[in-house]
Specification:
Elements lengths: L1 H19 L10 E9 L5 H11 L1 H4 L6 E8 L3 E8 L4 H11 L4 E8 L3 H11 L2
Antiparallel strand pairs: 1-3, 1-4, 2-3
């Protein structure tokens, strides 16, 4: 069911981009995707690291051509990785997680964008 949700979200994002920007899929203009690598709390950190090592996770994630914007720990959840992903690399990103990360993590993918410039202007405007 989780796989279906992730794939559904990715397909909806692709469809939105195709409708909104018809030539977008033909370019390598990157979009931001935030990936939650949620820790399996039945395993300790040593066990998770061993699973990642066995699967060569860091050799495959993120795939070539995908840029890491940030990689943070969200205590109680796991790791939150924000990536710049060319549309042509979206499937490779999904496969890198499915093939090499699923024993260690459960995952969620979210299309994201930087709202802070807008919020910053609103804050400045409200404080004048």
């Amino acid at each position: 069911m989780k796989l279906y949700k992730n794939l559904k979200l990715i397909l909806i994002t692709q469809l939105f981009l195709l409708i909104t920007f018809p030539s977008f899929a033909d370019t390598d203009e990157a979009i931001s995707i935030t990936v939650f690598l949620k820790h399996d709390q039945s395993k300790n950190l040593f066990e998770i690291k061993e699973l990642l090592k066995e699967s060569n996770f860091y050799k495959h994630f993120p795939p070539e051509g995908v840029e890491v914007e940030s990689w943070k720990v969200m205590m109680g959840i796991g790791q939150v990785v924000t990536l710049r992903v060319p549309p042509s690399k979206l499937a490779a990103l999904n496969l890198s997680v499915e093939r090499y990360g699923w024993k260690a993590y459960t995952t969620e993918f979210y299309p994201t964008y930087d709202l802070y410039p807008i919020v910053k202007k609103e804050i400045e405007k409200a404080r004048k």
